[in-house]
Amino acid sequence: MSHLDHLSDICLFPDNAMTCEELLKALNEYVDDEAALAVCREFAEHLAGCNPCQVVVDNIRQTIALYKAGEPYRMPPEFEARLRNSLQERWQQKFGKVD
């Protein structure tokens, strides 16, 4: 069963084919499997005919799968402290001192 087989005929882009820009705007819902109401058949049709968008979607899906399968890693305390200090300094340079 395809990822989009369950989608209804409701379409956000009814009059013309979905563009790469429209696909990228709807991508979060698609890769999060929350696309039933936000994405239409044009999404699948666009992916079928657009290799660059296929690559983007596949890479994002693989990244999400790797992230979800990964184990949490605790940073060494001295690195964590250096990182925190560096981020705080940059924040203060850009936005001013935090109260």
Concise description?
60% of the residues lie in helices and 0% in strands.
Rg from Cα: 20 Å
Helicity range = 55-70%
Shape: elongated
Number of helices: 4
Q: Beta-strand percentage?
A: under 5%
Q: Give, in order, the helices and strands.
A: HHHH
Q: Which secondary-structure class do the elements indicate? A: mainly alpha
- Biggest β-sheet: count, sense, barrel? none
The separation of the N and C termini measures 54 Å
Mean pLDDT: 76
How many strands appear in the DSSP assignment?
A: 0
Question: What ranges have pLDDT less than 50 throughout 5 or more consecutive residues?
Answer: 1-14
Topology, please?
Layout: H1 20-31, H2 41-49, H3 51-69, H4 77-95
Describe this structure in words.
The chain has about 100 residues and is mainly alpha-helical. The protein has a domain at about 20-70. Helices cover about 60% and strands about 0% of the residues. The protein contains four helices and no strands. Helix 1 runs parallel beside helix 3. The chain is elongated and about 50 Å long. Residues about 1-15 have low confidence and may be disordered.
Keywords:
elongated, single chain, mainly alpha, 4 helices, disordered N terminus, 99 residues
